[in-house]
Amino acid sequence: MSELAGTVRSKPQATEDTPARRVRRFLLQPAALGLLFGLLAAILLGRWFTTQATDQVTAQTQGRMAILEASALAESVGALAAANPDDPSPLQTALAAWAERSPGADTIRVVRLDGARLLASTRPTDLQGELPRRLVKEEKWLFDLGQELRAAIDTNRAEGIFRKAQIDVARPGQGRIRVTVPYLIEGTVSGIIVHDRPLPPASTGSAKSTLWPLLIAVPVVAFWLIALLFERAAPRSPRAQRWILFGVALALFAGGWLAFANRAMDSLDAGAIAGSTEVSRAYQELRTRVPAEAMAEGGAANAWDVDLFQRPRNLLAADGTVDAKAASQALERVREPLGRSLAGNLVLGVVILGFFGLGAARKLRETLSEFRYAYAYVSPAMFGMLILVFFPFAYGIALSFTGQTIFNTNQPLTELFVGLQNYKDILGDFDVARHTAEGWVINYQNFYWTLFITICWTVANVAIGVTLGMILALALNTPGLRFKAVYRVLLILPWAIPNYITALIWKALFHQQFGAINQAIAMFGGEPVAWFDGVFTSFITGLATNGWLSFPFMMVVILGGLQSISADMYEAATVEGATRSQQFWRITLPLLKPTLVPAVILSVVWTFNMFNVIYLVSGGAPAGANEILITKAYKIAFEEYRYAYSAAYSTVIFLILLVYGVFQTRMTRATEAVNT
Amino acid sequence: MNTDRRDSLRKRLGALIAIAGLAMGSAATAATELTVWHAYRGDEKAAFEKVVGQYNAKQKDVVVRTLAVPYDAYADKITASVPRGKGPDVFIFAQDRLGGWVEAGQTIEPIDFFIEDKTVNQLVPGMMAAMTYRDTVYGLPLNFKSIAMIYNTALVKAPPKTTAELVKLAKGMTDASTGRFGLAYEYSNFFFHAALMNAFGGQVFAPGPTPVIDSPQNIAAVKTMLKWYKQDGILPADPSSTLIASLFNDGKAPIVFSGPWFLGEVQDKVKYAIAPLPTVTEAGGKPMRPWLTIEGVYISAASTKKEQAYKFGEYLLSPEAAIVLALEGGQLPTNKAVYADPRVLKNPTLQGFRKQLDTAVPMPNYAEMTLMWSPVTTAMNKIVKGSATPEAALKEAQDTMKGNIAKLRKGR
């Protein structure tokens, strides 16, 4: 292997110094490559972000214009339908007139939910048949959409918040937009207007820039020129040379990125400004169509320019003029995310530049080729780990920064981002105990209480496991003990039985009236104990069960350790007159340490996350007081349905165990050091 | 017995071959395939598959395939697969998750548009409410279940009609020292307690999905339960379903409040009968009104064969299918024609649970229902253990639930 690596490394040296190679080496020097790839990544990604942002602005403008018109329609349709409840013909006339004035091939449909009826329509196929009529099977989606919007309005009203969209905007085909707005009669939803129209001709501000290759080429060429100058100048140490060239590349990169970012922001601004002017113009035109009496009363906000929740956007005044201040605020809202993305690109570009420019890329390439067999062998396992371990892990961590609950699983995580809020809620809540008239009341739902219980639980369990295991191991280790094998099998049994079965049996043993433990207590004249009623007694039930489950492991480990201690030591100690207890403390325990410490460390981690016993035996009774962190996380996710909060909770558990893990490694190393 | 089994085996084999043959035959004509998920086991599964077989034999357009999904994983599987365009065309589940699925979106297809009056009119009353969420119908009600009074006929001659009679009878049969109790039911489990709560006019949500756990009616209902347990001493402590089954089987509890699922645990030696739950003397003679769970047939929002799926759902509700579900599956179909059938009339179990339906109320199907269980269970345990007064415990549950609901609902 090393021989192979040697040949790979020495190869370039062997075939050096033809002029063509020197030119190539100059052109492809690390800093130049870094600059090229950094700029490529930053600008191509930046173009994608910019296109997304400008498209979003365009889509928003188009959506606003379409909603504006549909809202105006809904208002006049509502008025007409209320005025002529039994005769839909005025409605039909009005729709026809409206569609005639629209510039494109618009179709407007009015659906009444009651009886699923198509009241009026401007679609040619509908006009051939009789109107109004019941919706046909193919039009089920119209009815369902209407029901959905009606339910959305009802829900938002009942809950006093805006949770569900009250207007539906869809793009049914290339270049078309369909807006569905409910119309109301006497405050309740009667039906919907479905307005299907060509996309309004919203200008995108500026034509797509084709200058970007220049923005990459100019800095790279400039870099070559500068590098050439440096090479001609006084010779420097290779190290200084590398840093200077890296600095030059960095400056050129920053310049290229700045030029690009400025242009991107400008085009976004232009698009947004043009958009709001167009919406304003569209509104002025609409005002001429709707009869004066159907107009909303004048107010500060425009009643037709609304968002999906039918809340005024406050971007247009009632008379249709653009509210400059609100418009610039709205612009800021689009600029900000784009600015953030572009800044992210800057960082990415610099990282790439550094990666190449500072030689990390070359080192990586060399390592990969040197250990290529090793990497080939581990790659399947790495792939498996990636999918089965790291992806869910990363997803869980990403989830913990969102606000996902059962109600919004259909929204993408990016829309639910809440930052560190969940962590703040978990770690920042110190409401552990409160003083009331009846004394101190502990808030069992608090994270710190659960952490306290988890630590008590872990410490107590490990102590019990080690003590019991030690006693039994010492007993089994008695020389000349008969039926040793039988005892050993019997004592290992609790470990061999699936632990949920054991847990359920122990739960039954602790039953207040029918459990064997209380019956035994009663037999000796004691009062039966309501085990799951008290915090302490309930804790004891879990402890007893887990003690039962965990001592065999400790026993086996300790027994192994005991058998490796030489009998000579004890003989010598006996000759010197040491007592049994002295022998235990001075010989047995110190020599057991190397076996005991790893076992204890392992069992701490197992016990810390011992879900089965807590969940099945006490279930956290009473009132969640005996919950440990892992069962609590489960309950938050699957009983309270707050997925993101639970993910944050799990991440906190992970961090606690991570800290413990670091501590564990130190400990293990320390014992090893003592041992050798 | 033995020949019976062999016969049924032969029948089943025959049915299997028939289905297989049919499937092959229809594959040739390229009929549409519908996938149905259910969580049935044992007799219920056999009956359901028989009904599906009947449907496949009856028409040529579609071939319905069934898949039994283990109950524990069922709801999560639906939640995970359907919104991503996978999963079944039709699935069957109780109404308690309906609200959650509708809120999450893209899971259940609304079927208001398909439903005809004649489909609804053939059902026993009150079924559609469970399938309706925010005034939109999402499912076809297939079977219903509720608890009723199951009593040991060897020990109880005439079932008590009122709770006063019940307590009197139960007191006479209770002897805590030998582990005998006059009445056994999971009184600290809110699902069972709901019957008493409804008798007092209590509710979990009113109006809409606003919790009212600590209403005076709910407190009164809990106090009555507490009186039975503490003062009258007719109920065992820590009532789990296994404990109740063993008490009933040992003849140590003559009366049990439970549902059809309990009958599977009753040993053959115990002769039992089913009667409606008594009226509650403490609530002025109002009947106990247990919660109904209704299995709905839902059409997946991701299905591309919604119309065929609905047709199949309609067939499941028809008398022809329902009678099989009742007689062979031991279920309680929603079709009322079934209960006029002489074979069903002769079946005391079906008749008993059918009678209970007259006073039962559908369990709410709000998405918020799923948030109710944890705080309410905590409260009931505290009350039964005496670590909190009913007022305080229910108030706490109410506050917790309100808080949790507020955390779930976020405006935009």
Please tell me about this protein's structure.
The complex is a heterodimer of chains A (676) and B (412). Chain A contains 22 helices and 8 strands. The N terminus of chain A is likely disordered. In chain A, a hairpin with a 2-residue loop joins strand 5 and strand 6. Chain A is flat, with a radius of gyration of 38 Å. In chain A, helix 8 packs antiparallel against helix 9 and helix 17 packs antiparallel against helix 20. Chain A starts with a helix and ends with a helix. Chain A has 676 residues and is α+β, with helices and mostly antiparallel strands. Chain B is globular. The longest helix of chain B has 28 residues. Chain B has 17 helices and 14 strands. Chain B starts with a helix and ends with a helix. In chain B, the strands form 4 sheets. In chain B, strands 1, 2, 3, 6, 13 and 14 form a 6-stranded mixed sheet that branches. Chain B has a 4-stranded mixed sheet with strand order 8-9-7-10. In chain B, strands 4-5 form a two-stranded antiparallel ribbon. In chain B, strand 4 and strand 5 form a beta hairpin. Chain B has 412 residues and is an alpha/beta fold. Chains A and B meet through helix 6 of A and helix 4, helix 16 and helix 17 of B.
